[in-house]
Amino acid sequence: MGKFKKNSKRESGAISTASLPDIVFMLLFFFMVATVLRTEEEMVKVVRPEASEIYKIEKKHLIRYINIGPPQDKRYGTEPVIQLNDQFADVALIRDWVENERLTLAEAEQTKMWVSMKVDQDTKMGVVTDVKQELRKASALKVLYSANSRERTN
Amino acid sequence: MARREIPEINAGSMADIAFLLLIFWLVTTTIDSDEGVKRQLPPPVPPDMEQQEVKDGDVYNVRTNFRDELLVEKEVMSIGELKDGAKDFLVATGTGLLHPERPNVTLSDENLKYPERQWVRKSELLALEQSFLAAGQNKRAEKVREKLTAIELFGGDYRELPGSALISLQTDRNTSYDLYLQVQNELEAAVNELRDELALAKFNETYASLEERYNRTKQESLLDKIKAIRLVYPQRISEAEPRDASQGYY
Fold first, then answer.
1. How many C-beta atoms surround the C-beta of residue A45 within 10 A?
2. Where are the domains of chain B?
């Protein structure tokens, strides 16, 4: 009769974890490359509304941002303010701003500039309308209302 | 002297360090996404421009007030109903030809809130094209040719919205931005859904996928199809010049 041998001597070798750091580093580099860094500091709090008819701009260098919302820093109050580049601005400054931003683009692309409006969802339309009127006067007519995507409702 | 053996450095904690770095990165970076609802603002109005007369039935009036309520065609409506309302307006009379699954809205005297679609007929267009070419108006002849291509693609004459038919949106200064965007979104969704339905019926493909494929391949034949569908369902959302509610336009 055969005997069942218990080969208690044979141990499975520990799995080498030497390559684990490499894997994690690869992940890290992937995220570093894949994320788009925010170029400017957000000085206003923006909770973006949701929309289903979303358009994504492929050429990111054509986009300029206008942020509207209550200031992050409570010392500046709670009323919605406009942020252009890195500072608070008045509606009247928008036309100059558009002109300046347009000059930062190559000549052939100056008419293709997009203005992305990042507006807090609780903002009243008054200030948004004013900004839009100024954009029209400055002939910056391509506007993107920044929003998070959601499903279409039925 | 005997050579001392260099002990192997334990690399087990290397993974932990890398994970720490990874998590630090994930927490500190804010991902910026550039997506949203696209709009083309109208150019500024010259001060001497004349007011155009439009038929009452040709405009779909959408108003929002300071309490975030919707007034559509003088009736209170919830945001969930807006899309279907706008669809009814856009389909109105006579797209049944292209669109058998959507029932036609019949025009009666008390039902004047819908614009009447007009026939676009091949025979008339051919004559029109000749007259434009004879007069040297190449741009207008080009427009006519687009309609002829559309008729060819649809395999028959179709009916188009009158030029004055549009959706008009008037927002109060105290409406919330969220509601404003939802209204814009629903109106665009109405047009997009109709375009999808028509494209599916005629070209076995949704309008969105036609556009997506055209952006990738730049095929002329796809652009013709896109243009044809846009002719039947144009996106005409107009925003009224802002007025102050305190001036009493209600």
1. 15
2. 54-115+161-241, 122-156
Tokens at B117, concatenated: 């679609």
pLDDT of residue A97: 94
Tell me: pLDDT of B248 over 50.
Answer: no
Judged on CB neighbours under 10 Å (0-12, 13-18, 19+), A146 is: buried
For the CA atoms of A81, A82, A87, A93, the dihedral, rounded to the nearest 10 degrees, stands at: -130
Q: Do B242 and A52 touch (CB under 8 A)?
A: no
Identity of residue B112: L
Q: Which two tokens stand for residue A95?
A: 């036309």
The lowest-confidence range among B16-30, B45-59, B97-111, B218-232 is: B97-111
Element spanning A55, H or E: strand A55-56
Interface of B with A in 98-157 (CB under 8 A): none
Check residue B185 and give its pLDDT.
93
Please tell me the distance from the alpha carbon of residue B91 to that of residue B49, in angstroms, as a whole number.
Answer: 31
pLDDT, average across residues B140-151: 86
Q: What are phi and psi of A59, to 5 degrees?
A: -90, 90
Q: Which residues lie closer than 8 Å to B10 by C-beta, 6 or more apart?
A: none
Compare all CA atoms of chain A with the CA of B178 and give the residue at the minimum distance.
Answer: A121
What SS3 class is residue A41? Answer: coil
CB atoms within 10 A of CB A105: 15
Percent of chain B scored above 70 by pLDDT? 81
Cβ contact, residue pair B41, A143, below 8 Å: yes
Which residues of chain A does B190 touch, with a Cβ-Cβ cutoff of 8 Å? none
Least Cα distance to B161 among B54, B73, B241 occurs for: B54
pTM of the model: 0.79
Instruction: List, in sequence order, every beta strand (DSSP E) within A63-147.
Output: 63-69, 81-84, 87-89, 114-119, 142-146
